[in-house]
Amino acid sequence: MREIRFHGRGGQGAVTSAELIAISAINKGGFAQAFPSFGPERRGAPVVAFCRVDDKKIHIRAKVYNPDVVVVLDPGLVDLLDPTEGMKEGDMLIINTKKTADQIKGLKNTSIKIATVDANKIAQEELGRVIVNTTMIGAFIKATGIISIDDITEPMMERFGAKLGERNMKALKRAYQEVTIKG
Amino acid sequence: MAKPIDEITWQELGIGAVVTEIGNSVQYKTGSWRSERPVVKKEHCIKCGVCWLFCPDMSIVQTPEGHFTANLEFCKGCGICAKECPVGCITMQGEEA
Amino acid sequence: MSEIGKGRKGIEVSIAMADAVAQADVDVIAAYPITPQTHIVEHLADIVANGELDAEFVPVESEHSAMSVCCGSAAVGARTFTSTSSQGLALMSEIFIIAAAMRLPMVMALANRSLSSPLSIWNDHTDVMMVRDAGWIHFFVENGQEAYDGIFNAFRMSEDPGVMLPVAVNLDGFIMTHMVEPVEYVDGELIKKYLPEFKMKNALHPDNPVSMGCFAMPEIYTEAQMSREVGIKDAYPTIVKAWDEWGALTGRHYKPIETYRTDDADYCIITMGSFGETAMEVADMLREEGEKVGVVKIRLWRPFPMEEFRKSVLGKKYLIVLDRAISFGSQGGPVAMELRSALYGQKDAPVVVNYVAGLAGRDVSRKDFRNIILEGKKKAVSGHTDGFTLYGLRG
């Protein structure tokens, strides 16, 4: 089982990221869960969403405490909280940032792999607004291989419709190309 | 009220204690509750039906001649008919002879 | 009948439940939105507004009115659905009780949530325990598939001419309602086979007048209560049959009491609702460590499956009962109280240790389960079995 945690801000679509990945995994016959850190939705406040993917039925009804993968949708969150909490050596942290992995300071756990991508820039150019949840899935796919670009295409089109779906897929594919993985 | 309520068993009540006998309230004679009865002076009655309209128990009935009078099997003696009669032809009289 | 396709989907449990309600071809939905039930009724409102389901969606001004509408629609023999949570259930409680007493079939998705105060929107079982004695049939689901299936099972039970009782499908708020996971849908043919048209005897109709909810003197109220008591107890075989037939049609089998690795277990953890899934996972972990622990899951809460419960636990050394509510001023959690009274005076009755955890959405992780099971075992061995322990309490 692979456990994933998303850090974002209310309104950035962290829950949508988790859901799209879960639905992609389920649609190809696998098992998955996606769920928010339950509570009132407050735009801009730091939020967390979770996802589990497995090839057999998942029996856990609790939050993710030891994620194999953490995705940070908002660069500002790295300084606000510890995105590496619960991670162990070799796990993957994926950050939306202009910086390189080496330029990111202050992480409490340095034994992890770090993937960086400037998703803000990609989303601005491809979608015309800085909503990076779908863009970051591209980086996620490249960095983890938990699902593929083929797997995500149909759920994306279903969620956003043909026109907006295409643009989101374009942003996703750019992030897949542009992400840099260290470690 | 095929049976008095203190004789009905739980098995006879049926699901939800739904009452399926239509209009069985006519079996419930409430006339014994009365301490006064309405008495109509027919010669003054103008056959307007106001007493019939106001009676809360629907116990005012029209006679073949068109006057109105109380069915004493159900009349509880509330006196509303006497109060409402526009010509004052109904008076309440004590039940005790 | 709504055209909602069959097949396996990754879907939010609330949406799957609403789809099931539409597939069950309900006639009337009356509900007021409240977290965490909201997605269920919002989706149903969409389905009706889009013309995909020929039903009346009554957007009432309160839960009290929601339940009143449901009573009216059930009384005329319409297939009726509602959903609520927490304070909403509290507000509808007056009519909620009447629905059971008047034997009006309907189905409620009860997204379990804590009661104020302090104000909380998160999950526990204090709302359902508030109406424990109302006379509804209550069962609990522990995953999305069970929530979806439960809607069909509930209508089948509720509308059976020998049952005629409202049924609450209890699902843990957020933990279930806001979860995206795989759910296998059934097709319309299967539903037609499983769920016959609702034909209510003595439904309100001008051609067949009846009186419902009459006044009762002390001379008859006792008999009316006995009729209710026998009614819900007699529903039991129909409930089991509704699950058995669903199992035969879908391969998904449900029982009033379910057990996991209990055959050779020395002791068991007992859960109700979504706790059951994590408990199984942790039982597997503890088995690896040599602990002979099993899991007993209570699916049917009312009518309580006394015999099946006893059969599943008599002869075990101890039971660790995990509640999600407190009955203030009592021995502890409502489930533990129920089980203690079920076991009292029985030969080979296990010792009961009671934990209350997961109040108002406080997460209960695998580690927490492990602690509860191992600590609970210690308490049982040392004879500290009175009252209950509030797990994770500070101070």
Rg estimate of chain B, integer Å: 17 Å
Mean pLDDT of chain B: 92
What's the CATH class label of chain A?
A: Alpha Beta
The name of the CATH topology of the domain at 29-94 in chain B is: Alpha-Beta Plaits
Supply the number of structural domains of chain A.
1
Basic shape of chain B: elongated
Q: Classify the fold: give the CATH topology of chain A.
A: Pyruvate-ferredoxin Oxidoreductase, domain 3
Q: What is the name of the CATH class of the domain at 29-94 in chain B?
A: Alpha Beta
Question: SSE order of chain A in H/E notation?
Answer: EHEEEHEEHHHE
Largest sheet of chain B: 2 strands, antiparallel
Q: Strands across the major sheet of chain A, in which order?
A: 2-3-1-4-5-6-7
Helix content of chain B: 10-25%
Q: What's this entry about, in short?
A:
The complex is a heterotrimer of chains A (183), B (97) and C (395). Chain B has helices at residues 10-13, 50-54, 80-84, and strands spanning 36-40, 60-62, 68-70, 90-94.
Protein model, in words:
The complex is a heterotrimer of chains A (183), B (97) and C (395). Chain A is an alpha/beta fold and 183 residues long. Chain A is 38% helix and 22% strand. Chain A has a single domain (2-182), classed as Pyruvate-ferredoxin oxidoreductase, PFOR, domain III (Pyruvate-ferredoxin Oxidoreductase, domain 3), CATH 3.40.920. The longest helix of chain A has 30 residues, at 149-178. Chain B contains three helices and four strands; from the N terminus they run αβαββαβ. Chain B has a two-stranded antiparallel sheet. The longest helix of chain B is centred in the middle third of the chain and has 5 residues, at 50-54. The radius of gyration of chain B is 17 Å and the shape is elongated. Chain C is α/β, with parallel strands linked by helices. Chain C folds into two domains: 7-250, Rossmann fold; 257-390, Rossmann fold, CATH 3.40.50. Helices cover 41% and strands 18% of the residues of chain C. A seven-stranded mixed sheet of chain C has the order 3-2-4-5-7-6-12, with helices on both faces. Chain C has a six-stranded mixed sheet with strand order 9-11-10-13-14-15, sandwiched between helices. The longest helix of chain C is centred in the middle third of the chain and has 17 residues, at 218-234. Chain C has helices spanning 13-23, 38-49, 63-75, 86-101, 126-130, 144-159, 188-194, 218-234, 236-250, 275-288, 306-313, 334-343, 366-382; strands spanning 7-12, 28-31, 56-59, 80-84, 107-112, 137-140, 167-172, 180-185, 257-260, 267-271, 293-298, 300-302, 318-323, 351-356, 389-390. At the A-C interface, helix 1 and strand 2 of A face strand 1, strand 8, helix 10 and helix 13 of C.
